[in-house]
Design brief:
Layout: H1 2-11, E1 14-17, H2 23-36, E2 40-44, H3 50-61, E3 66-70, H4 75-83, E4 88-90, H5 96-104, E5 108-110, E6 112-113, H6 116-125, E7 129-132, H7 135-147, E8 155-159, H8 167-173, E9 177-180, H9 191-206
Parallel strand pairs: 1-2, 1-9, 2-3, 4-5, 6-7, 7-8, 8-9
Helix pairs in contact: 2-3, 2-9, 4-5
Length: 212
Amino acid sequence: MTTDIIARLDALPLVAILRGLEPAGAVEVGEALVEAGLTCLEVPLNSPRPLDSIERLRSALGDRAIVGAGTVLTAEAVKEVAAAGGQIIISPNTDVAVIRAARAAGLASMPGFFTPSEAFAAIGAGAQVLKLFPAEVAGTAGLKAVRAVLPAEQRVYAVGGVEPDSVAAWRSAGASGFGIGSAIYRAGRSATETGERAAAFVAAWTGSSPRP
């Protein structure tokens, strides 16, 4: 299961972070994002009734998108996300218990890290994708420095402060993908505008190149 999820992420490694999403509008927003080309949606667990939104998105989008949870802080929350049909567990921090619980449940794991020590702890626990957070604090220089000590094949997503016009610079510094929050979605933003913003990131990704 996770092999397929990672393969799909590799095809377009952009994650829409839908913090504040209401269940009633979840499907409309999800459809707009898929139409724009995005295939991975994250509902943070500090959103209103997040498990309800995950269930609705999974039911409506089926195989057209990967749907998971963000801000997952406990192993118990991993079980709840799995029961709701979630496919990927994303956290702001490095917690080996959460990483191991995700892998044990057959879900993909994307924990946050900020230091090399956290990165290697996450890899050792089974994380498949690392999330540099907050990326705007580390900057492209920070990413490049961490990249020098990580395994070359390790996936590292930059999360925080990324805009369409900075995608190329981040990729050149070693970003494998991105998690994008308010630059795509914020509570109250229309599905139409959300889709337009997502399309701009898809265009920025396809028009840029990975690090040399």
